[in-house]
Write a structure and sequence with these properties.
By secondary structure, the chain is mainly alpha-helical. The protein has a single domain (13-107), classed as Cytochrome b-c1 complex subunit 7 (Cytochrome Bc1 Complex, Chain F). 53% of the residues lie in helices and 0% in strands. It is built from 6 helices and no strands. It starts with a helix and ends in a 16-residue tail after the last helix. This is Complex III subunit VII.
């Protein structure tokens, strides 16, 4: 189901200052722990996510699991990733989107990768 154009404009960081600020905040919080946005999807809650993860190459799933373990470890220690490693993080680079498109996942309604990656 497509979103109305006013809703897309409201959620587009290029057109809405508040959406842009929210996206910067989310990006910084993900960078603090070395996570990507799609790492937050829970395969136990949605069967589409589980199926997409099952179909992905083993290296990608292993990298996801390592990011999640590192984030839990940092959180338990009340620490953040070092600044030099935070600069290398790409929180909005997608690894599940193409596979979800093949499966027909409902997560494709909102495109969160709107030209924000390089900022």
């Amino acid at each position: 189901m497509a979103s109305p154009s006013w809703l897309q404009a409201l959620l587009n960081p290029n057109k809405n200052w508040f959406a842009k600020q929210h996206m910067k905040t989310v990006s910084q919080r993900l960078r603090n722990y070395g996570l990507r946005f799609e790492d937050l999807y829970d395969p136990k809650e949605d069967l589409d996510i589980k199926e997409a993860l099952d179909r992905l190459p083993r290296e990608i799933v292993d990298a996801r699991n390592q990011r999640l373990k590192r984030a839990m470890d940092l959180s338990m220690k009340h620490e953040y990733l070092p600044q030099d490693l935070q600069a290398l993080q790409t929180p909005f680079r997608s690894y599940l989107k193409d596979m979800l498109a093949l499966i027909g996942g409902s997560y494709l309604d909102f495109d969160y990768t709107l030209d924000f990656v390089g900022r």
